[in-house]
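A reminder from the course coordinator: this example appears on the midterm review sheet, so study it carefully.

Given structure:
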C-alpha cells in the first residue's frame, strides 16, 4: 500500500488519502449494487458504505488479515441480499436482526473502534446458523412433497401437449372426445409418470401413439374441412393395423384401453365406408396445473441455459407493480420439467417449467443474483493497483535518471 501511495503521489499528483480512498471505494463498489439488495435495505445501507470506505482506507490490516472484522462484516451482510418483504414472522425477524447489526456497525465506525463489532457479527452469525438449519429442514420437506406433485404435473403436461399438438382444432368424432381426454390421456399419463423421459420415448406404447395421433388428426371431416376418400383408403388400414399392434403392448388398464380401441376402430371403419359421423373440432386440453406451454417455441440456446442451473443458485425475479422476488432453486429433477424456487426461509415462492424459466432469463424477468466475495474482491483488485504502482515507480526512476543526466 505504501508503494502504491508513493507511485500515485509521484506520477498522478494524488495525496495518499485520495489513493487509499479510491482503493477502498473500489473494494466496496461490488456490494453497492441496486439489484443486490431489496430497495428497503438498499436505502438503509447507503449511509453505511461511505463510513465503511473511510474506515477501510485508514486500515492497512484490512487488506492483510483474512479474519479482519470488517471483512467478516461484509461477508455476513451478504445474507441480507436474499431477503425481501414477505408476510411471515421469520422474514420480519431476519430484517430486525440485520438492522440491529447495521446500527451496531454504524456506531462502531463512528467511534473508530471495530473490536466490539466482532461480538455483534457473532450474534448475527449464530442467528443465521439456526435460521439456515430450520430453513433447510422446511425446504427438504417441501421438496419431498412437491416432487411427487411435480412429477404428476410434468407427466400430465407432456401428454396434454402431445394430444393438443396433433388433435387440437381438428375434426374428430364427437363421442370419442371424452375417451381421448379420459382413457387415452390417463393411460399415457400413467407411463409418463412412471418412466424417465429417456425410458418413455423408448416405450413401445408411447412410440405407437406418437405415430397414431398425427394420422388420426387428418382422417375425419367437418364443415369446411374435407378429407379425400382415396387418402382414407390408403391411411385407415395402416392406422387400424397400428392400433392392433398397440393392443399387444403392456397397458395399465387393459379393459378400458381395449374398449377405447374398439370404439376408435368402429369409427375408422365407418369413415372408410362413407357412413355419416358426427365430427366436431377437438377442443385443446388444459392441464390441471394450468395452460400448457407445448406450443411455445424456445430456442435451443435458451433451453441450454437451464441445463447450467444448479440447486442452490439464487435469482432475482422482477414482477408487476415493481415487485422483486429473491428465490433459490430448491428442486431440479431430470424426471420433472418443473423447477421449484423458495425464499431464504425455505418457503415455496413459485414453480417454473424449463421453458418458462428460459424465457424469464432471456427477457430479463429473471437474473442471477450477484454473489460478491470480499476475499476474492481484494485478491482481484490489488494486482491491478500493484501493477499501476510498479509502472509509476519505473516512471519515477526514469525521471530521476533523466534529471541526474
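Designed residues:
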Amino acid at each position: 500500500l505504501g508503494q502504491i501511495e508513493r507511485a500515485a503521489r509521484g506520477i498522478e499528483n494524488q495525496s495518499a488519502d485520495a489513493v487509499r480512498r479510491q482503493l477502498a471505494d473500489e473494494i466496496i463498489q461490488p456490494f453497492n449494487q441496486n439489484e443486490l439488495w431489496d430497495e428497503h435495505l438498499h436505502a438503509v445501507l447507503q449511509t453505511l458504505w461511505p463510513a465503511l470506505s473511510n474506515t477501510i482506507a485508514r486500515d492497512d490490516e484490512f487488506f492483510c488479515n483474512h479474519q479482519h472484522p470488517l471483512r467478516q462484516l461484509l461477508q455476513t451482510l451478504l445474507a441480507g441480499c436474499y431477503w425481501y418483504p414477505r408476510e411471515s414472522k421469520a422474514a420480519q425477524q431476519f430484517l430486525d436482526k440485520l438492522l440491529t447489526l447495521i446500527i451496531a456497525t454504524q456506531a462502531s465506525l463512528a467511534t473508530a473502534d471495530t473490536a466490539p463489532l466482532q461480538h455483534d457479527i457473532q450474534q448475527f452469525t449464530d442467528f443465521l446458523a439456526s435460521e439456515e438449519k430450520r430453513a433447510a429442514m422446511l425446504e427438504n420437506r417441501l421438496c419431498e412433497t412437491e416432487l411427487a406433485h411435480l412429477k404428476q404435473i410434468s407427466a400430465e403436461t407432456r401428454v396434454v401437449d402431445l394430444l393438443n399438438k396433433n388433435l387440437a382444432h381438428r375434426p374428430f368424432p364427437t363421442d370419442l372426445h371424452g375417451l381421448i381426454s379420459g382413457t387415452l390421456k390417463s393411460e399415457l399419463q400413467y407411463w409418463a409418470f412412471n418412466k424417465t423421459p429417456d425410458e418413455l420415448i423408448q416405450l413401445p406404447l408411447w412410440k405407437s401413439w406418437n405415430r397414431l395421433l398425427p394420422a388420426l388428426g387428418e382422417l375425419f371431416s367437418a364443415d369446411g374441412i374435407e378429407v379425400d376418400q382415396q387418402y382414407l383408403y390408403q391411411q385407415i388400414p395402416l392406422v387400424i393395423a397400428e392400433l392392433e399392434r398397440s393392443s399387444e403392448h403392456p397397458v395399465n388398464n387393459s379393459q378400458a384401453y381395449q374398449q377405447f380401441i374398439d370404439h376408435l376402430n368402429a369409427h375408422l371403419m365407418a369413415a372408410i365406408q362413407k357412413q355419416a359421423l358426427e365430427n366436431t373440432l377437438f377442443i385443446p386440453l388444459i392441464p390441471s396445473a394450468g395452460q400448457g406451454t407445448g406450443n411455445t417455441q424456445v430456442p435451443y440456446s435458451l433451453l441450454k441455459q437451464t441445463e447450467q442451473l444448479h440447486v442452490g443458485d439464487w435469482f432475482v425475479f422482477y414482477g408487476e407493480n415493481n415487485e422483486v422476488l429473491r428465490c433459490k432453486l430448491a428442486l431440479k429433477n431430470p424426471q420433472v420439467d418443473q423447477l421449484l424456487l423458495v425464499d431464504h426461509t425455505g418457503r415455496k415462492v413459485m414453480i417454473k417449467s424449463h421453458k418458462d424459466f428460459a424465457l424469464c432469463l432471456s427477457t430479463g424477468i429473471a437474473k442471477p443474483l450477484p454473489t460478491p466475495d470480499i476475499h476474492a474482491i481484494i485478491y482481484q483488485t490489488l494486482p491491478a493497483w500493484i501493477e499501476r504502482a510498479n509502472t509509476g515507480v519505473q516512471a519515477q526512476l526514469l525521471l530521476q535518471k533523466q534529471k541526474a543526466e
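The longest helix spans residues 117-167. The chain has a mean pLDDT of 88.
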